[in-house]
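Sample entry (205 residues):
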Amino acid sequence: MAFSFATPAVIQPTRLTYPKIELWIPVVQGVADRKVQNAINEAIRTEAHKLIKSQGSLDDPRSEMFGWFEVKTNEKNVLSLSLYNYAYTGGAHGLTLQSSLTFDLKTGKQYTLSELFKTGSDYRKRLDAIIAAQIKARGIDLLQPFEGIRPDQDFYIADRSLVIYFQLYEITAYVYGFQYFPISVYELQDIVNEQGPLGVMLVND
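Predicted structure, serialized as tokens:
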């Protein structure tokens, strides 16, 4: 099974299986610069292994692990994807972790949240206000009052939106799953780094 898109990047799932583990890891192909392609794939592999390590030991005979991914954006030389890792290591239920990566397919640069915005812009204050408003509007039951995002808050880019999200247990109980907060790039355009992935999404073509 392969996923292809009308951009230079083609995402080919690679399946790795072990007695208790099944992992589907994306491999990027078709990038013009082979060094850039290799760097992106190495970053993806490194992050996938971080998720595996974060899940802890699989020594329990009942334990298991399953990893998969979703491509969120693959256009305008921007690749944004999420890696997921579910593991049961004992206890009442398993745990799913999610980690997202956003790349410039021309340079291989991996973007942090702060790099999506203009230097000196108070982007966290803006995002905090938007997220707080969504929490109120959606009636989300929080574990504790929302105090704002972390500097390294998880995010991805999808459908010309910045999606901020929170891990299981981070702001809500496990039963509510991951909490996602989509924010249109047009709502942020005055503080967006025009040379970054969000800036590209503002351009209609």
